[in-house]
User: What shape does this take?
Amino acid sequence: MNPSGNKTILHVDMDAFFASVEQHDHPELQGKPVVVGASPDKRGVVSAASYEARKYGIHSAMPSSEAYKQCPHAVFMPVNMSRYIEVSRTIQAIFIEFTPLVEPLSIDEAFLDVTGSFRLFGYGAEIALKIKKRIKSVTGLNASVGVAHNKFLAKLASDLEKPDGLTIVPSKCSEVMTFLAPLSVGRIWGVGKVTGAKLAEYGITTIGQLQNITESELGAIIGKHSAKHLLHLAIGEDERDLDMGRGEKSISKEYTFEFDCQSPEELKSVLSELVDDVGQRLRKSGYFAGQAKLKLRWQGFQTITRQRIFNNPICDDFSLREMANTIFDNEKIIKPVRLIGFGVGKLTSSAPRQLSLFGAENDMNDKKEKLSRTVDAIRDSLGDDSISRGSKIKRKK
Assistant: This one.
């Protein structure tokens, strides 16, 4: 039983996830500044930086060339997304050991509702500590955890004592307000650079200052709707439940022609580029697709969609291209095409394989997936144009 009568929500956030995986897999990198992303002599950006690298001001989305200037002795590693997804799935499986109520936010963080797990594992702080220890023993990685009675407070708390942190938010309203008061308004969801700058113009820089302003006063600064939202969060109120269905339900990409097109060769060339984009996003999201969809909008705006189911969920470019071409070839181009689109649906986080003779089909699927992920890694490191099927047709986007 929960002594406070509230829900207990954990926010588990892996510390410098990509970089930490690289340091774990390459022990010689322990204690060194590690930057995951494009090579500094190529066009590209930083995907992640170890805490040792962050001391030099390196952060994600920074151009790799700039990161090199900040720290020339940093070790630059290419993105190894298939490995990060593998570790992420291991961590997600650990969460399920403690509660079935898990809302993944991304590859390296999730909300857990552990209210119903007290009898088995203890109260919130005890469960958080057990999860941290379990992740460490299985993966060798550190996680920071926030423990609170709602999602906003749990996520905020997980970021306060990184790395390897454990922060517990009090449950009483007055104590929550005291806990929040000294923190920057930038800690609140929805307060970005623009809103933060507006608030700063009026001398509002801490959550405590927000707690002492009226809704009408704040509404005059940032708008009535935003004011109400911020004031609720400023006193620690957040009524959202976990969303176990969170995640992309589909991934798609469309292209509108500058001039309507009726050339099958041109249409298939564009379709191939759309498939490549969707495939790369599919793999980076950690999903497998059970369904493929083709969209055609004719001259005159009549639109049709066609879809087919894969025998097994897949994420490799080869299977996606084959299915896209199969669907396309079954359609007659009856009039010029204004728009073409490709997408995937019925997304799952795993790809159960059907039994086949000697497992040959499964082996081939695994090889296709591995090769596709290798291409992703090369593109992440060297740029999107480093590998292609051939010369791309230049079009006005």
Notes: The chain has three domains: 1-171, 176-234, 250-386. The chain has a mean pLDDT of 87.
